[in-house]
């Protein structure tokens, strides 16, 4: 689902990504851990076209997003980005819209679904996430864990092939992380590939098929290991 080769990204004279190689396969949950400033979030943002890289390549679901300083055309980028879901660290839900309205916004505007089609799909997603009774609530009426699940639901509504999570438990009480972990593991059983950035090693061990350590703009291959059990 994701293939990155020799990826470089700089901010001015500061080199943040220094030749990153990374693969994520269908149904895999890959977690990237490492200290702040090591390049994890920049890598995630680069995959989602929120940052532009200078060299290397990014291929998503067999489609070339970026190669050797050149990005796909605007039309191609739009198609590729439909395969990527992103759940932000701060949820980024629209505060003036209900949970249901948050979820149907992108499918109607971007995918061209009718409101009826988008609503039917959204209600299925809310059922899967255990949020059916919160469909008409506004974000301020939700707990942190419920907001995170609603944010996941909004990303799922676009039917992505690769889901990216930026620190999905950082704003949650530790007692709520199991809820998010269970949702993520359920998604992987449906074949969705996931890339997760986190500082929470306990959470990483609960969800990951593979954990990669990243620091100083590079993947530390000697720290890659397979998780034998998801406790």
Walk me through the structure.
The chain is an alpha/beta fold. The chain has one domain (25-50, 77-226): P-loop containing nucleotide triphosphate hydrolases (Rossmann fold, 3-Layer(aba) Sandwich). It is 32% helix and 27% strand. The chain has 7 helices and 12 strands. The strands form 2 sheets. Strands 3, 7, 8, 9, 10, 11 and 12 form a 7-stranded mixed beta sheet that branches. Strand 8, helix 6 and strand 9 (193-197) form a beta-alpha-beta unit. Helix 3 crosses helix 4, helix 3 (99-109) runs parallel beside helix 5 and helix 4 packs across helix 5. It is globular. It starts with a strand and ends in a 5-residue tail after the last strand. It comes from Sporanaerobium hydrogeniformans. Keywords: ATP-binding, Nucleotide-binding.
């Amino acid at each position: 689902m994701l293939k990155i080769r020799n990826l470089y990204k700089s901010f001015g004279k500061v080199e943040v990504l220094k030749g990153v190689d990374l693969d994520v396969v269908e149904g895999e949950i890959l977690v990237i851990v490492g200290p702040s400033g090591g390049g994890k979030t920049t890598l995630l943002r680069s995959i989602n076209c929120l940052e532009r890289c200078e060299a290397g390549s990014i291929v998503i679901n067999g489609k070339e997003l970026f190669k050797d300083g050149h990005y796909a055309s605007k039309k191609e980028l739009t198609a590729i980005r439909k395969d990527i879901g992103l759940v932000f660290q701060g949820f980024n839900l629209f505060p003036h819209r209900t949970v249901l309205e948050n979820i149907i916004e992108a499918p109607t505007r971007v995918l061209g679904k009718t409101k009826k089609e988008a609503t039917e799909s959204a209600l299925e997603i809310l059922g899967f996430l255990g949020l059916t009774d919160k469909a008409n609530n506004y974000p301020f009426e939700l707990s942190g864990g419920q907001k995170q699940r609603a944010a996941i639901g909004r990303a799922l509504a676009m039917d992505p092939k690769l889901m990216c999570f930026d620190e999905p438990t950082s704003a949650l009480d530790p007692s709520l992380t199991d809820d998010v972990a269970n949702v993520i593991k359920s998604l992987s059983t449906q074949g969705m590939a996931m890339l997760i950035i986190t500082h929470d090693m306990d959470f990483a061990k609960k969800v990951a098929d593979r954990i990669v350590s990243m620091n100083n703009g590079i993947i530390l291959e000697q720290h890659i290991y397979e998780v034998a059990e998801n406790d």
